[in-house]
Automatic annotation (TrEMBL):
This is Class I SAM-dependent methyltransferase. Residues 237-256 are annotated as: Disordered. Residues 60-153 form the Methyltransferase domain. CDD domains: AdoMet_MTases. One of its GO terms (molecular function) is methyltransferase activity. It comes from Streptomyces ziwulingensis. Transmembrane segments: none annotated. GO terms for biological process: methylation. Coiled coil: none annotated. Keywords: Methyltransferase, S-adenosyl-L-methionine, Transferase. InterPro entries: Methyltransf_25 (IPR041698), SAM-dependent_MTases_sf (IPR029063). Pfam families: Methyltransf_25.
Amino acid sequence: MFSPEGPTLRELAVQAMSSVERGYDLLAPKFDRTPYRTPDRVLDAVASALEPLGPFGTGLDLCCGTGAGTDVLARVCRGRVTGVDFSEGMLTVARERARPAGAAPAWVRADARALPFAPAFDLVVSFGAFGHFLPRELPGLFAQVHSVLRPGGLFAFPVAAPPPPGSRPYWALLGFDAAMRARNAVWRPPFVMYYRTFRLGQVGRELARAGFRTALHPLAEFGRRPDGSPRARLVTARRAPAPAGAATGAAVRAGS
């Protein structure tokens, strides 16, 4: 599961008994050599799905970690790319690994639930971070994303289909979430990381309440399940365009 250069079992145990922020600070130097880093296959599929929806201007990688998602933004955005995360350790690694073809990304330390930006972005992406937010936090999180997008801007993120009940992945995820809930019941500070709380139906409802118009795009690279449904989708949520005749500044229309 982990490469020889990845974290040891002891290091993972220390991380798991820390807060989310402290845990990722500790994990950061070896994060890219763990399964937690979004695979290049997913990043490439998302970039390919976004390209026909552009071009985009400025981009924000929400909960950017070590910056893998900013590579996607660099492919589809013409303007400045920014990564935001609350772990200074992850941002330090992101700064070190960044090899931009154009302008260097901006790296900002901040909580996704209180973003320090004006409506300055045409595209916001996020990869693999939503398990760190409890379901009750989604309305506030999506409201924050809405607030930093220009009119007509797009919020996009991939989601995998849930594993079939009774399958090995199903029991693995169920067991992980159960272990995490037990840990948080007896240990402080809590470490919020649940794989089964980010449900597509609820997510769609909360995005709509936040003012987004949502769509689902199958990621064909991952094929389909036996019932014909996609194994992975890209969720796109668009902030409403400015009213006809209103000033839109430097907003870039990202297509429909």
